[in-house]
Amino acid sequence: MKNSVKNQLDSLNSELGLLFRDLKKFSDNDLNWKPEEGKWSVLQIMEHLILAESLSQKYLEKKLSFDPALKNTNVLSGMRSMFVSFYLKTPIKVKAPAVVDQTLADQSTFWELVKLWKQNREDLETFLNSLAPEMFKKQVYKHPLGGRMSIGNMMTFHKHHFNRHRKQIESILKNFKY
């Protein structure tokens, strides 16, 4: 795996560990609490993040399974990544893709999601380690809003996506009705 992508994955894993540390003191009831009708609970946000990461990996696996002709990364793919990163730092909301939004459970358990997320991250690391070095220079990932970009750009998306939802989680917990 390319060193910069490995560093991104390590950083994501570190942030994930901090999230788990902060949430483990709450009960499943607390973490399943929704601040209002139509809003996600903390566990639904976690599940959303897990699904986004998992679906990204599945997309890469499928895309690379048939040896496609891929373009090298360029200024445009970098600009698309910057656009997605910029958007994720704004308060502007875009509805999650239906495949992610429709599959969220009404009730979950924290420790089951922790186990699933850790396993998914291990699977992602194994997958990324299996890729030929030249794949990290290709526009192999397709973001629903930003279009084609590199694996490094995908990891940047996941970082900003995680940070955006981490703030959402913090807001829910700050306003939690004990």
In short:
By secondary structure, this protein is mainly α. The chain is 63% helix and 3% strand.
Write up what this structure looks like.
This protein is mainly α and 178 residues long. It has a single domain, classed as Four Helix Bundle (Hemerythrin (Met), subunit A) (Up-down Bundle), CATH 1.20.120. Helix content is 63%, strand content 3%. It is built from seven helices and two strands. The protein has helices spanning 3-23, 28-32, 42-64, 75-88, 98-101, 110-130, 151-174, and strands spanning 141-143, 147-149. The chain has a two-stranded antiparallel sheet. β1 (141-143) and β2 (147-149) form a beta hairpin. The longest helix has 24 residues, at 151-174. The chain starts with a helix and ends with a helix. 20% of the residues are buried. The model has no long low-confidence stretch (mean pLDDT 92).
